[in-house]
Amino acid sequence: MAKGDTYPAEAEVYRSDRLTIRPLTAADAQAYVEHTHANKQDLDAVDIYVPTDLNDVLTKIKYASPEGGEDYGIWEGEQLVGGIDLFSEVNRDPQEPKIAWIAYWIDKAHRGKGIAKEVVRGVVDHAFGPLGFATIKAGVKSHNVASQKTLEAIGFIHTNTHPKTGSFTYTLEKPETPAV
Predict the structure, then answer these.
(1) Which of 30, 48, 150, 176 sits at a 20 to 30 Å CA gap from 57?
(2) What are phi and psi of 14, to 5 degrees?
(3) What residues pair up with 138 in beta bridges, in sequence order?
(4) Handedness of CA 29, 33, 39, 42 (dihedral sign)
(5) What is the pTM of this model?
(6) 133 within some domain
(7) Virtual torsion, Cα 59, 64, 70, 71, nearest 10 deg
(8) How many CB atoms lie within 10 A of CB 152?
(9) Residue 72 is part of a domain; what is its CATH number?
(10) Is 63 exposed, middle or buried (0-12, 13-18, 19+ CB in 10 A)?
């Protein structure tokens, strides 16, 4: 099986009674492109780069890394309803704690159902757990109040405002594990 064709169930990042998050596969690429085209205006407004060309999506899938350079699809049943990306901060000293960034989008027909909050929580658990990240950050446009509320409900804290763009950075630190 070539990388990106299919993923076994254990590759799932999150599963609930309603939603599944898993790495995108080549078989998902066309549906992903159709959804990004349908949501392009909204994605452009919040400055989330999401590839909208089939070849670009296939290339991202081919070179994805489970250590933190992965594009995940969000499924409600069998229907793709959004995407969430998790990627490592680059050019960091390997002795320093690992930092990840997340970016997510939900198809406009599926917003307002709590999907974003549920999937961000799922990816945060995955990043802090098996992937070993110590910090997770998210960039949010100042006018994207829904995303700010989602992040704050999970425990992210507004830690920076970009001086030129006015965009916000939200940060979540891995909780300390109590000593036994």
Answers:
(1) 150
(2) -160, 145
(3) 102, 170
(4) positive
(5) 0.82
(6) yes
(7) 20
(8) 12
(9) 3.40.630.30
(10) exposed
Residue 139: is its pLDDT beyond 80?
yes
Mode of pairing for the β-strands spanning 69-76 and 19-23: antiparallel
Q: Are 166 and 142 in contact (CB under 8 A)?
A: yes
| Domain extent at residue 53 | 14-173
74-124: per-residue pLDDT in tens?
999 989 999 998 888 876 677 888 899 999 989 999 999 999 999 999 999
Confidence bin at 4 (pLDDT 50/70/90): very low
Rounded to an integer, the average pLDDT of 146-171 is 94
Instruction: Give domain status of residue 8, yes or no.
Output: no
4: in domain: no
Distance CA 112, CA 124 (A): 20
CA distance 146 to 167: 14
3-state secondary structure of 37: helix
Indicate the number of domains in the chain.
1
Residue 5 falls inside a structural domain = no
C-alpha atoms less than 13 angstroms from C-alpha of 75 in its C-beta half-sphere: 18
